[in-house]
Amino acid sequence: MATSRANEILPVLEQDIVTGKLTPGTRLDETVLAEKFGVSRTPIREALNRLSTSGLVEIRPRRGAIVAAISVQDLMNMFEVMADLEALCARLAARRITPAEKEALRAAHVDCHALSGTENFDEYYVLNLRLHDLLYKASHNSFLEKQVCELRRRLSPHRRLQVRIPGRILASSNEHGALVKAVIDGDAALAEKLTRNHVAIQGERFTDFLATLPSHYLQASA
Amino acid sequence: MATSRANEILPVLEQDIVTGKLTPGTRLDETVLAEKFGVSRTPIREALNRLSTSGLVEIRPRRGAIVAAISVQDLMNMFEVMADLEALCARLAARRITPAEKEALRAAHVDCHALSGTENFDEYYVLNLRLHDLLYKASHNSFLEKQVCELRRRLSPHRRLQVRIPGRILASSNEHGALVKAVIDGDAALAEKLTRNHVAIQGERFTDFLATLPSHYLQASA
DNA sequence: AATCAAATTCTTGTATACAAAAAATCATTT
DNA sequence: AAATGATTTTTTGTATACAAGAATTTGATT
Fold first, then answer.
1. CB A55 within 8 A of CB A14
2. Contact B6, B37 (CB under 8 A)
3. Which of A82, A143, B169, B215 has its Cα between 20 and 30 A from that of A166?
4. In chain B, which residue's Cα lies nearest the Cα of A91?
5. Tens digit of pLDDT for each residue in A72-114?
């Protein structure tokens, strides 16, 4: 698939950043990475350049690359946009979702809901992602889908761990229930509103998110 | 400012694409560009790589780079997202705009409105941009502002010329009037709604936009 | 001992060299 | 003359070499 070395290296590096294996602020030494991947510096530089455009890496001229460190303010801003784009997805999905997609969405919700009683956060995290992915897809706007996914990827390195508040799964799942119903019923306005609340910057979700922030966010700013 | 050659070349290339000097589909030969800029291929490749991530350039493995050619479907998708992000800007601006920004917005509208009677499309284009930029800024969400601007840049190479329909300036300016008032009055819901209509995919604006599309959009797809 | 300056080392950025793949050209065959 | 296949030429992708700017270390001075 990936024909060039750079194209193979890029997703690996990206994954390491997104999953938090490489934390924000970490220096990305070209020579070290080159050795690690068994290539010369050239393809490494290519990958880092691309990552810098997408915002995951920050390149300071003549001073090397680091995993992008962003401020709480930036994070709130990104979350605000994320909520809006997700709401747009829901609105469009309510208008454009196909019967097959309805079925898949229902199934994804059932899977999520099965964990309602439990505190199985890791598994819920995955199933929750899948449900949201289905909503993005159902918007039938591939550009929007790509933007939302990229933004989510960009946010993910900044959650150190998933929210682990008792009862959160149940609450989230109930919100999903209403949202899924609105989308399937074709109620665009309701789907949009429910999504806004679900991801809202004022709501629990974001507070939860802030609560999981590593302490270094409380001081510095890029 | 731009310390490296690549950092100097990137904006030039970007500008050439955005302004339509380099049209979608044009091959970007590394050697030719290297000669033109008086550098080796290395910084050229760096710039092209970065442009590929932001979507202005498409790099096909082993087959070189071209100015990104996108389908009408993609364009409609991007416009749909653009409308939504602009609406978000307006909503946030209505809540967060400062007195100084109100004044600037009013002034920008006055400038726009001065051209209402005329058919001075070129000048109106610039003033219209300025007014919208002020709205982005007034959202006080720098990430959102950046996203909207980038999306606009990405859309711009695909309008061959500005819409030149008689009376369009007057209509646009009137819409601005209502929008500016809503923002200044702090009516977020109205500001959002007016913006949606102003940029709406269903509305005149997008139809105008489609009408200016170069003919090659009518056939192919990437 | 602390601080500042000079020199050294290390790292980034660019150029060049080389290898491999794609495109183009040319010859051969039907 | 058209089509197909082999050969040449271009062009991309990677490695290496080199230059210039940071960072660090060392040494001198207060």
1. no
2. no
3. A82
4. B84
5. 888 889 989 999 999 999 999 999 999 999 999 999 999 999 9
Q: Between residues 83 and 122 of chain B, which touch chain A (CB distance below 8 Å)?
A: 84-85, 88, 92
Paired tokens of A66: 């680091």
Taking CA–CA distances from A61, the nearest residue in chain B reads: B3
| Non-local CB neighbours of A41 within 8 Å, separated by 6+ positions | A30, A31, A34
Token pair recorded at residue B209: 């936009």
Half-sphere exposure of A53 (CA within 13 A, CB side): 22
Q: Work out the widest C-alpha separation in chain A, in whole angstroms.
A: 56
Question: Is the Cβ–Cβ distance between A69 and A213 less than 8 Å?
Answer: no
**Which single residue has its CA nearest the C1' atom of nucleotide D16?**
A40
Q: Does domain A72-218 have CATH number 1.20.120.530?
A: yes
ipTM: 0.90
Query: What is the Cα–Cα distance from B136 to B149, expressed in whole angstroms?
Result: 9
Cβ atoms of residues A9 and A49 within 8 Å: no
The closest of B190, B208, B187, B189 to B199, measured between CA atoms, is: B208
Tell me the nearest-neighbour CA distance from B90 into chain A, angstroms: 13
* Domain-wise residue ranges, chain B: 5-67, 72-218
Task: Evaluate whether B217 touches B76 at the Cβ level (below 8 Å).
Answer: no
Burial profile A1-34: b = 16 or more Cβ within 10 angstroms, e = fewer: eeeebbbebbeebbebbbebebebeeebeeeebb
pLDDT digits (tens, 9 = 90+) for A189-212: 999 999 998 886 555 566 666 666
Which one of B77, B139, B195 would you mutate to disrupt binding with A, by most A Cβ within 10 Å of its Cβ?
B77
* CB-based contact B108:B127 (threshold 8 Å): yes
Structure tokens at A29: 């030494």
CATH label, B5-67, candidates 3.30.70.270, 3.50.30.60, 3.40.50.2300, 1.10.10.10: 1.10.10.10
Q: What are phi and psi of A175, to 5 degrees?
A: -60, -45
Nucleotide lying nearest to A28, CA to C1' measure: C11
